[in-house]
């Protein structure tokens, strides 16, 4: 994927975000920082946490919905074969979705899969919940390290099981 850097204005501060182009669709997905993600939620974006259910239960952005892109298996993560089916049945393809995971790796893969499936209004939390290192080894804090609201457990309507029950 090619990366194009651009400045976005998210309130009184300016944050550097990256737009990633999907070579198949030619569509760009804005990869945002935690403060930008919070602003997007305030604008009506729905945060979809694509981490496993145990990771979500330990802590997640307040109000997030859980739809795992992969599940933990005995030898590591294995793809969730129902990910796209659940997303397509729970959300309209034009709905404003903000996708996040632990460090930005799974969410990047999830966003690519969603864009290929025809979802058109996607944003990705590039640092994830915990944070990541940039290409120069500098730490970029994630949602949990940015002082933003955090929820735990499986609040009503937010668990993977609850999202699976949503019907469109």
Explain this structure to me?
The radius of gyration is 15 Å and the shape is globular. 24% of the residues lie in helices and 33% in strands. The strands form 4 sheets. A 7-stranded mixed β-sheet has the order 1-2-3-10-9-4-6, with helices on both faces. It has a two-stranded antiparallel ribbon with strand order 5-13. With 168 residues, the chain is of the alpha/beta class. The protein has helices spanning 34-42, 53-58, 83-90, 105-116, 160-165, and strands at 2-10, 13-21, 28-32, 46-49, 60-61, 65-66, 70-73, 76-79, 97-100, 122-125, 131-133, 139-141, 150-151. The longest helix has 12 residues, at 105-116. The protein has a single domain, classed as Rhodanese-like domain (Oxidized Rhodanese, domain 1). The chain starts with a strand and ends with a helix. The protein has 5 helices and 13 strands. β9, α4 (105-116) and β10 form a beta-alpha-beta unit.
